[in-house]
Amino acid sequence: MSPTLYAVTGATGGLGSHIVEQLLSQGKRVRCLARLGSDTGFLESMDVELFTGDLLERLVVDLFVDGATHVIHCAAKTDNWGPWLDYQRGNCDTTRHLVQACQKSATFKRLVHLSSVSVYGHPEPNQWIDEEAELGQHPWTGDHYGRSKIEAEQIVRALGTRAAIIRPTSFFGERDRAFLPRIMRSIRNGGMWIFGRGDNLLNLLHVSDVATMSIMAVEADAAAGQTYNCCANGDLTQQELIQILCEAMQLPPVKRHLPIQIAHRAALAMEVTGKVLGRKRTPKLTRHALSVFLRPTNFSTQKAERQLGWQQTISTRVGTERTIQWLRGVQPELF
């Protein structure tokens, strides 16, 4: 049996499950961590070693990492609503426990940490963003997600050259029941708008391309101690995405446009109201959700292309069509 063992956190999620799938297709041994009560059906159908536990439990994390050579950390609080404590626990404390377990392990070689382009804050629209760009630019009050991801990166850097960091844009795909379904429900309920003119190119990746870079970074010597952007070329506009979804649902096209400045003000007002009233449910529109539709495509992936040989292989359009086909089988009520 090969001594190489890949340990994947967040393996029940869209990204983690694709990483597991790719590793197994390459003949690798894989260990997965899943929280109690999470849907492990897909993992149970695969030839993996399945751990049940929480990254907030130090003993669980130590046992999970023990014997592993390569660790890929996907688990995170990624939704865009909640108090800072939730993000601190879900993104910072969990990462700290994982890093400490790696430091104690005799077999550990490399950790890949999945961060986010949200660490850059909110740069100017035409600003070229490579991995050396300043973090936390023009911060939004209450942007707990971006803040927690910056802190998590600082924790990971304690591993030095035994870690690599990936900063992906928003991604979607098969086994993701959140991103496209949320938009589709909004379209069906009549609550969908096109923000601005709608002709902006989307910075959205199919999840398999993020999974591919994750595996490249955990294995390549060149990735030791490095950070990589993982972003899309931009082949589909906001309006085109919504049109594709409308056609798939056999609904008329969305024609309502909301000016971007008004959309930002509306999102901020909804967030403030929700926090003042102590609402746990995510507002209908948040600034973070809005940024997914408006994030520019000026994030450089040249470093990953040069050092890892990574390329975007699935266009946003093709990824959307593939995800729609998958959703027809698992969530037919959306159509």
List the helices and strands and how they pair.
Blueprint: E1 6-9, H1 14-25, E2 30-34, H2 41-44, E3 49-52, H3 58-65, E4 70-73, H4 84-104, E5 110-114, H5 144-156, E6 163-168, E7 170-172, H6 179-188, E8 194-195, E9 204-206, H7 207-219, E10 227-230, H8 238-248, E11 257-258, H9 260-276, H10 287-294, H11 302-307, H12 316-330
Parallel strand pairs: 1-2, 1-4, 2-3, 4-5, 5-6, 6-10, 7-9, 8-11
Helix pairs in contact: 1-7, 3-4, 4-5, 8-12
Protein name: dTDP-glucose 4,6-dehydratase
InterPro entries: Epimerase_deHydtase, NAD(P)-bd_dom_sf, NAD(P)-dependent_oxidoreduct
Enzyme class: lyase
Please give a quick description of this structure.
The protein is an alpha/beta fold.
Largest sheet: 7 strands, parallel
Query: What is the element string, with H for helices and E for strands?
Result: EHEHEHEHEHEEHEEHEHEHHHH
Spatial separation of the terminal alpha carbons: 46 Å
Number of strands: 11
Rough shape?
globular
Helix content: 40-55%
| CATH class category label of the domain at 6-176 and 204-233 and 296-315 | Alpha Beta
The CATH superfamily title of the domain at 6-176 and 204-233 and 296-315: NAD(P)-binding Rossmann-like Domain
Estimate what percentage of residues fall within beta strands: 5-15%
Instruction: Give me the secondary-structure category.
Output: alpha/beta
Radius of gyration: 20 Å
Number of helices: 12
Spatially, the strands of the biggest sheet line up as: 3-2-1-4-5-6-10
Indicate the mean pLDDT: 96
